[in-house]
């Protein structure tokens, strides 16, 4: 999805009073949450030099 298409989708959603549908082409809040959990586990593992468990 190009920059213009994303901007148009967001602008249209704002004008219509709703949130734009980003999936399946864009990341959703749950996607970001899972990515953050993975990053935290990577940092924990690097500090402890052990495998870190991930639970969502």
Q: Roughly how many Å apart are the termini?
A: 28 Å
Number of strands: 0
> Secondary-structure element order, as H and E?
HH
Round the mean pLDDT to the nearest integer and report it: 81
Global outline: rod-shaped
Strand content: under 5%
Number of helices: 2
Can you describe this structure?
The protein is mostly helical and 56 residues long. The protein has a domain at 23-56. The chain is built from two helices and no strands. It has helices at residues 3-15, 29-48.
List the topology elements:
Layout lengths: L2 H13 L13 H20 L8
Summed up, what is this model?
The protein is mainly alpha-helical and 56 residues long.
What keyword list fits this structure?
56 residues, mainly alpha, rod-shaped
């Amino acid at each position: 999805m190009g920059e213009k298409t994303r901007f148009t989708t967001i602008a249209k959603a704002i004008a219509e009073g709703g949130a734009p549908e980003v999936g399946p082409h864009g990341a959703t809040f749950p996607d970001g949450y899972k990515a953050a959990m993975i990053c935290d586990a990577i940092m924990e593992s690097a500090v402890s030099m052990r495998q870190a468990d991930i639970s969502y």
